[in-house]
Write a structure and sequence with these properties.
Blueprint: H1 3-7, H2 19-31, H3 85-93, H4 95-112, H5 125-136, H6 143-155, H7 161-170, H8 172-192, H9 196-202
């Protein structure tokens, strides 16, 4: 080491290691250079996964989004009535029976928040009144406007009385089937205790 190096405060101190050992360290330093302090930091942590929501909303079992007014769409389209042919056929040939069932099931859910023990009242005063109006003047479908409105209000579904009237008049079996499937979703939820999305993920 020169005299100039001894006066340099930033010069490396003389090494006491043998020459071969120092040469080996230099080769290792060339093969494995230290990481640059300016290199960007890369995280290898697993992505965050939100915990499963097992609570859910029994009145929105499909988890559909709400609009700014807190309303959502029907869980099933009005044109998907043929997915349930038995319900659609019964609604077509005996609308008074399906009207009575849906009304009693909806009333039971509103009162007790559990499924109707008999699956609805098929023969009741509501069924008789609907049948008489249909037989005499063909206006039994007018009674269904109130039930459809009550269904929309319970499940916070978009729409209004005019839309309900047109839908029932245009395709009565489709609207009854749509209401029936909406009520069934809450009944299944209250019976099994988990939202449909959670049950599908656990299957």
């Amino acid at each position: 080491m020169s005299k100039h190096d001894l006066n340099d405060p930033f010069a490396d101190p003389p090494s006491s290691l043998p020459y071969e050992h120092r040469q080996h360290e230099a080769q290792q330093a060339q093969r494995f250079p230290p990481a640059s302090p300016s290199a960007p930091y890369q995280s290898f942590q697993p992505p965050f996964k939100a915990p499963m929501n097992t609570q859910g909303d029994p009145r929105n079992a499909m988890g559909l989004p709400h609009d700014v007014d807190g309303r959502r769409d029907w869980s099933h389209s009005i044109f998907s009535c043929f997915d349930r042919p038995e319900t659609c056929c019964l609604s077509c040939w005996c609308p008074c029976v399906m009207y009575s069932r849906n009304k009693s099931r909806l009333h039971h859910l509103s009162e007790f928040n559990v499924k109707h023990p008999q699956g609805g009242d098929s023969v009741s005063s509501d069924c008789f009144l609907h049948c008489c109006l249909n037989t005499v003047v063909g206006l039994g479908w007018l009674l269904q406007i109130g039930t459809r409105g009550a269904t929309r209000d319970r499940y916070k579904i978009q729409g209004g009385a005019c839309e309900d009237c047109v839908s029932i008049w245009a395709c009565n079996p489709c609207t009854i089937t749509q209401e029936t499937r909406e009520i069934e979703l809450e009944e299944q939820f209250s019976q099994e205790g988990l939202p449909l999305k959670s049950r599908r993920s656990e299957a």
